[in-house]
Structures are given as structure tokens and as C-alpha cells.
Design goal:
- The chain is an all-alpha fold.
- The protein contains 16 helices and no strands.
- The longest helix is centred in the first third of the chain and has 41 residues.
- The termini are far apart.
Length: 350
């Protein structure tokens, strides 16, 4: 074996070891941040309590008042933010890799708007809270269908995809607002979260319903990660390896839409999270690996829980939805990403 080959092997081995260390450090830091944020969420509020008291109350021990506050108010809201953030982060990761487009995300492509429309429609029909995830999933699939119909003629070019997605999102959001305006007063309040996004007032029934479905879809996404990795090689290479490209893309698209829709069923159309998380993960860990999807879910959970903590305790405006904070951060982020897409690159991708 020549010295050049040996050197290349050593370089690749060192590079893989470096990536594994970065992934491990990032995962450890993310889990630690998530635990600390969750502890802060459970201990702060109008009734502050020590961390030990809050953790005991979480498992039903201690003063009945503390148990009520933690188990019925703080914990469901925090867990809802974690579940929704994880779903949005994973959905953004799948969509950006699937379309090879840094602008692809559920909120830009209209999926969260469709999910909100489906959820609000079921609320208007008087359906049970346990059925809200079903309505959100149906609405998200409808939005994906509309996006495909209007953008397919351009070959899913970057500019056409983004502009069509923004138009679909705006149209569906307008439909949601119209329905809420026509609602009776007692229904308008419960549907208001689907205008900006909020985890306020989440119940364990909603968390378990959407969260259980989210776990199943996340498991499916992890199982199908190998197909996504093959698609990363390009259509020609993926086809040469025996992958049915159209079928794999459709399956992964359905998984991403399901993740985003279930997240919207819990938190409404929260923006920015799914758009930013894949970029954060790539910046820290480099090119996609087998751990990218799990890291994206973890990062999304941390980001949304931190945003909700800011809404609850650091802003002077009471009752501000978490979607307002993420949208404020997401608008300049989206502008920067769009400006980075040069015209020659857009034409080549179209």
C-alpha cells in the first residue's frame, strides 16, 4: 500500500473521529440544556418553588397545591413545547435534505398553515381534542398537495417553491383567521393559538395524543434515514444503488409533513424553528450523518422550550404567544437565506 493511500486512510479516519466527537459533545450539551430549561420552566412562575420540590411534585409527591401547579399547568406546557419543537426540527431536517434547498421548511412551504386549518376545522365541528392531530395531519397533507400542484411545472425550482409555499401559507392562514372570526366567542379563544402559535393551556390529553403519534412518525423517519442518505448522493447515484427515487421521496415527504402537522396540532403554526434548526446542526457537526435527524429533533426541542420560557418570564407583554417570538427571529433569518441564493444557482437547480 502506497504512502499516499495510507495517508488518505488516516486522514479520513481522523475526520470521522472528529465528527463523532462533535456529535457527542453537541448531543450532551443539548440534553443538558433541555434538562436545565425544563427545570426552570417547572420551578418559575407566580408560585416559584425549589427544584427539588418541583421534581417531587412532577411525580405526585409533596404539597397538593404544588402537585396541581406542576402536573396540570407547567408540565403539560413544557412537554408540549419539547414535542412540537422536536417534530419541527426533524421535519425541517428532512425537507431541506430532500429538496436540497436551505429554504425548505414546513412554515415556508405552507404545511403548518394547512395543519392549522385542519385543526381549526375540527374545533369548529365540535370534535374531541384527541382528534385534533388527525385534522392537523389532513390539513398538512392538503397543503403539501397544493404546493406540489402549483410548483411541479417548474421542476420544484428554488424560487418557485419558496414563493408558492409562501402564497399557500398566506392563503391558508387567511382561511384560519376567517373561520376564527366567524366562531362563537367560546370557540374563538381555543382556536386562537392557530393564528400565531402557542403552547399555552395545553393539556395531557393533547400532549399524549399528538406526542404518541409523533413518536411513531419519528421512529419511521429514523428507519427511513438510510434512504435519505442515499438521496443525498444525487439521483443518478441513488438510482444506480437500486433506490426507487420517486417512491422514497414521496415516503419521506409524507413523514416530514406528518411531523410538522403533529407539531402544529400542539403548538399551532410556529415559524423559524424548522427553518433554522438544520442550519444550526450543520454548522456544529458538519455534513449530515446518521445522527443528524436525532440532533435536529433535540435542537428543535431546546429552541422552542427556550422561546416559550422567554415568552413567560422575560418579556413584559403578558400572554404573548411563542410564535410571535420565533417569527421575529425567523424573518431576518429567512431574508438572509434568500439573499444567499444567487440567480445562477437557482437556474441550475430549476
Amino acid at each position: 500500500m502506497s504512502a499516499t493511500v495510507v495517508s488518505d486512510v488516516r486522514t479520513k479516519s481522523t475526520s470521522r473521529a472528529r465528527v463523532r466527537r462533535r456529535v457527542l459533545l453537541f448531543a450532551t450539551a443539548g440534553l443538558a440544556a433541555l434538562f436545565m430549561l425544563l427545570t426552570v420552566c417547572l420551578t418559575t412562575g407566580e408560585m416559584p418553588m425549589p427544584a427539588g420540590t418541583a421534581l417531587r411534585a412532577l411525580v405526585g409527591l409533596g404539597d397538593p397545591g404544588d402537585v396541581l401547579v406542576v402536573q396540570q399547568f407547567r408540565a403539560p406546557r413544557s412537554v408540549a413545547a419539547i414535542v412540537a419543537g422536536a417534530g419541527l426540527g426533524a421535519a425541517g431536517c428532512v425537507l431541506q435534505r430532500l429538496f436540497r434547498n436551505p429554504l425548505a421548511s414546513p412554515d415556508v412551504m405552507g404545511v403548518t398553515g394547512g395543519a392549522s386549518l385542519g385543526a381549526v376545522a375540527l374545533i369548529a365541528a365540535g370534535a374531541s381534542q384527541t382528534l385534533i392531530p388527525v385534522g392537523a395531519l389532513g390539513g398538512g397533507l392538503l397543503a403539501a398537495l397544493l404546493l406540489g400542484v402549483f410548483a411541479w411545472g417548474s421542476g420544484l425550482a428554488v424560487t418557485r417553491l419558496v414563493l408558492t409555499g409562501l402564497a399557500v401559507q398566506a392563503g391558508l392562514a387567511a382561511a384560519v383567521n376567517l373561520m376564527i372570526v366567524r366562531f362563537p366567542a367560546e370557540l374563538a379563544g381555543s382556536a386562537l393559538q392557530w393564528t400565531t402559535g402557542s403552547v399555552y393551556g395545553r393539556t395531557w390529553t393533547e400532549v399524549w395524543g399528538a406526542g404518541g403519534a409523533m413518536l411513531l412518525v419519528l421512529a419511521a423517519a429514523l428507519v427511513m434515514h438510510r434512504r435519505l442518505a442515499v438521496l443525498d448522493l444525487g439521483d443518478d447515484s441513488a438510482g444506480a444503488l437500486g433506490l426507487r427515487i420517486s417512491s422514497a421521496r414521496l415516503q419521506l415527504l409524507v413523514v416530514a409533513v406528518a411531523l410538522a402537522s403533529l407539531a402544529a396540532a400542539l403548538a399551532g403554526p410556529v415559524t423559524f424553528v424548522a427553518l433554522a434548526v438544520p442550519h444550526i446542526v450543520r454548522f456544529v457537526t458538519g455534513p449530515p450523518t446518521t445522527a443528524s435527524l436525532a440532533l435536529a429533533g433535540l435542537t428543535g426541542a431546546v429552541l422552542l422550550l427556550a422561546s416559550d420560557l422567554v415568552v413567560q418570564h422575560l418579556l413584559p407583554i403578558e400572554g404573548l404567544p411563542v410564535g410571535a417570538v420565533t417569527a421575529t427571529l425567523g424573518a431576518p433569518w429567512l431574508l438572509v437565506l434568500m439573499l444567499r441564493q444567487s440567480s445562477p444557482v437557482q437556474r441550475s437547480r430549476g
